[in-house]
Amino acid sequence: MRSKAIKLLAFRREIQDRLALTEDENAENTSLVLAAHALKKTKTWILAHGDYELQDKEINTLQNYMTKYLQGVPLPYILGSWAFFNRTFKVTPDVLIPRPETELLVEKAIAFGQEKDSLTIVDVGTGSGIIAISLAASLNHASVYALDISNAALAVAKENAKNHQQSRIMFVQSDLLSPFRGRFDLICANLPYIPSQKMEKLPVARWEPRLALDGGASGLESIEKLLFQAKSRLAPGACILLEIESSLGTQALEIAHLTFPGAKHHLIQDLAGHDRVLQILLS
Ligand SMILES: C[S@@+](CC[C@H](N)C(=O)[O-])C[C@H]1O[C@@H](n2cnc3c(N)ncnc32)[C@H](O)[C@@H]1O
Question: Which of 131, 221, 222, 229 to mutate to test the pocket of ligand 1 (most atoms within 8 A of CB)?
């Protein structure tokens, strides 16, 4: 039995002090997010109930979260979910953590899809399913395929599709487009694009699946292979949208020119002004 009740605000301050020692710039927000998750309340509730007396179970949960956080486990893996394009998606260490930059690709894909009466879309390397699910939810007239080489990632994506009532997405385990013979109107992909030699120096490489990050020696190996496969799998007027590593824009554009000489190619910049999406538009 506890001799003295621990109040929520006091405990959050303790967490913040420990985080501040690690020079965590988001200590206040992190303590808020962890507390909201541990207590299954909103952040507003946590802010408004500093006097709430924590139960032993809640203290244990929060201490467990803190231990993981201080070990460096990314917040989304501790919480088991993360927000993307106004929805919350389940995430596990089998999938890449959704990045805000990927919303740019989704916005461009929706804009393309809205101009068509019907279309077939494929999300190559779906991971947690964020691209396929966001597109299926916004484009009711589209047939959507989502593929990944990783069965573990596909299991997470399927669960996310179920949670967001997107039952019409067809999930397929495959190495890029190898088993597909059909013609797609829109190919979207956020494939691994970090050059192998950069991987070792990146903190993310410690936690996120290598399969989701390592783009081979050039960083463009999967993208190049996908573009080559796509040549025989596109409908007239089709579009390809690929997320790229910002420093590889010029090389990615060159590959696009070589593979689709008659098409229009653009690099689209993210909010920070970095090259982020390669768009290829067939005539
Ligand atoms: C960078 S993650 C992107 C995940 C998700 N689309 C997103 O944007 O968060 C790349 C994904 O591609 C998958 N992948 C890697 N190589 C692949 C291949 N040859 N064929 C199919 N999927 C592949 C990985 O398993 C991983 O889920």
Answer: 222
Task: Write the pLDDT tens digit of every residue in 64-103.
Answer: 999 999 999 999 999 999 999 999 999 999 999 999 999 9
Q: Which residue's CA lies nearest to atom 12 of ligand 1? A: 125
My answer on whether 20 and 100 are in the same domain is no
Query: Computed from CA positions of residues 148, 154, 158, 159, in that sequence, does the dihedral angle turn out positive or negative?
Result: negative
Q: Do the beta carbons of residue 47 and residue 32 sit within 8 Å?
A: yes
Nearest CA among 185, 170, 165, 183 for reference residue 113: 185
Query: Residue 29 is part of which domain span?
Result: 8-71
* Distances, alpha carbon 96 to alpha carbons 6, 30, 188, 211, 238, in Å: 36, 20, 16, 9, 27
For residue 262, tell me if it sits in a domain: yes
Query: Count of H helices and E strands in the chain?
Result: 12, 9
Counting atoms of ligand 1 from 1, which one is nearest the CA of 84?
A: 9
C-alpha 190 – ligand 1 centre gap (Å): 7
pTM above 0.90, yes or no: yes
pLDDT band at 1 (very low <50, low <70, confident <90, very high): very low
What total of structural domains would you count in the chain? 2
Pocket of ligand 1 (CB under 6 A): 95-96, 98, 102, 125-128, 130-131, 147-150, 153, 175-176, 190-192, 211-212, 222
Whether 131 and 110 have beta carbons less than 8 Å apart is answered as no
The label of the residue with tokens 């998750």 reads 37
The residue whose C-alpha atom lies closest to atom 26 belonging to ligand 1 is 212
* Residue pair 162/140 in contact by the 8 Å Cβ criterion: no
